[in-house]
Amino acid sequence: MTALTDIVPPGVVTGDNLLKLLEHARDNGYAIPAVNCTSSSTANACLEAAAKNNSPVIIQVSNGGGAFLVGKSIKDANAAAAGSVALAYHVRAVAKYYGVPVVLHSDHCAKKLLPWFDGMLEADEEYYKMFGEPLFSSHMLDLSEEPDEENIDICVKYFKKMAPMKIWLEMEIGITGGEEDGVNNEDVDPEKLYTTPEQVYSVYEALSKIGPMFSIAAAFGNVHGVYKPGNVKLSPEKLLTHQEYTKEKIGSSLERPIFLVMHGGSGSTDDEIKLAVSNGVIKMNIDTDTQWAYWDGLRIFEAAKHDYLQGQIGNPEGDDKPNKKQYDPRTWVRKAEESMTARVALSMEKLGSVGTYPKSSEPGSQQVLGKKVNVVDGVISAVKGLLPH
Ligand SMILES: [Zn+2]
Q: Which is one Gene Ontology cellular component term of this protein (predicted)?
């Protein structure tokens, strides 16, 4: 196995490095968790999980997440784009300190939300002019509600705009059940919850003419959100049929020529996840489970410290004792973060990404652009350069 550390630098990865990262996942049979983030706090919790588990991570923002990030009081047509860009800048500013590859992605964009997508693309273009790479690594278009032909046409139109900046496109075809971001598929005909190999191939055919950097979320009985077990029949074995069909059509030497993405994975069994990954899933979305984890950390903290959280002064240790340490947001938000970090780590374990990006164990060394650089040596040679010869 080629070491990921030798081919992909730490920090936000875009373009060729992103392609290398996802090819590495495909070729080595693991997937990367993509976690919906709605704040700097939740983003940091993901970065912490990635750093502690030597794993790459995908941080993604939804339209609703973007609108929340800008501030709920702001009612502006560009609010969601502005908030999404703000999260991207936050992640860009801090990612390098965590020492692992980070993918910046935007989640489901239905037809009515295209102005949000356009706003983020504008930010990508601006960033590209300044730094020669886009702000985001990747964006998702979800036109699965539209007829297939229109879905694919719109994806082609956008992918042509994105390809020159080497931005990844994730698209969805077929119906994922449940409800997310205002799209409600709760009462859909169960037969329609499975994308066919022909549908997947038609996407491959259209997008591969433009570039290799795209992935497909094909429905295989997945449902957004958490449902009672038994209500959904997940069929990850169908994903292999997609791979085989396209492989045959294009005569590919790759066993799994298509990058697949798993949505609606909350509540899936470990075996279902494993089978999906072995059939070419390289990214799995996580939202519902990490939302719960974030809340659960706070819930447990409040239950344990309840009597210290009822007023600014006065607790079981005395009527005049201050409680500032307990109600400082850095205390209780941190509890939420720790709980979410642990949940993201669990997903990394299930998806097999743990340990794929080992940081150097040599003291004082860190990775810069994939090369191990000894910080002490670097400082010594810099100091030597300053001394008179
Ligand atoms: Zn989806």
A: cytosol
Domain spans of the chain, in order of start: 4-288+338-358
Q: Which residue has the tokens 């090369």?
A: 371
- Residue 346 makes CB contacts below 8 A (sequence gap 6+) with none
* Cα separation, 62 vs 126, whole angstroms: 21
What is the pTM (predicted TM-score) of this model? 0.90
Superfamily of domain 4-288+338-358: Aldolase class I (3.20.20.70)
Annotated catalytic residue: which of 107, 124, 142, 289? 107
pLDDT digits 0-9 by tens, 21-43: 999 999 999 999 999 999 999 99
Q: How far is the CA of 178 from the centre of ligand 1 (A)?
A: 10
State in Å: Cα 107 to ligand 1 middle.
8
Task: Name the residue with tokens 């290799």.
Answer: 212
Pairing of strands 371-374, 365-368: antiparallel
Q: Quote the ligand 1 centre to 176 CA distance (angstroms).
A: 6
Active site residue 16: no
Q: Which residues of 247-285 are buried (b: 16+ CB within 10 A; e: fewer)?
A: beeeeeeeebbbbbbbbbbbbbeeebbbbbbbbbbbbbb
Q: Distances in Å between the alpha carbon of 195 and those of 190, 199, 232?
A: 11, 7, 15
